Amino acid sequence: ETGVTQSPTHLIKTRGQQVTLRCSSQSGHNTVSWYQQALGQGPQFIFQYYREEENGRGNFPPRFSGLQFPNYSSELNVNALELDDSALYLCASSDISRGQDYGYTFGSGTRLTVV
Amino acid sequence: QKEVEQNSGPLSVPEGAIASLNCTYSDRGSQSFFWYRQYSGKSPELIMSIYSNGDKEDGRFTAQLNKASQYVSLLIRDSQPSDSATYLCAVNDYKLSFGAGTTVTVRA
User: What pLDDT is recorded for position B93?
Assistant: First the structure.
């Protein structure tokens, strides 16, 4: 059983640029969610995708957008990068059909630095 | 008020002692709770889940849930240096809401 993989592992971007982060979910999982973790903070929910549709969104502006593909992999896109977007971006997958008692598996994350 | 709050750290315990971590949550309807461990620079790793009032034990870890008090805790018995990490409490309402985490340092 493969785990959750994210790419790239590290990224440096300039303020105002756009970035795309990628995630392959764990085998058998149909739900992907994205989290932003600033230094010293807990992860903050960005959004979640199920069956290629966004089915939940946290308090993030529209310049944060995403996609889920038929193979359940996902992308997180951030436009017009700001310095405060510098963080660890985590992808987590789950099998939502098993109910909310089923845990989420996290990928190793992408460290984004905006300069 | 934050959705999930954890006792502020850092928490330093000697090797072999019990580390006690606490978490409160604001949504009385929450049903599903997780504890994640996160080593520095790494991603969170699920160590415990609990859904019913009472205690749940797994090896050296015990999670305790009290829904009436909206309180969940984690005990780490016989703490080892490898337990040194940040522990994140999370409430699952079809998305995870995390606390800020409590950093635990186990002194050899």
Answer: 83
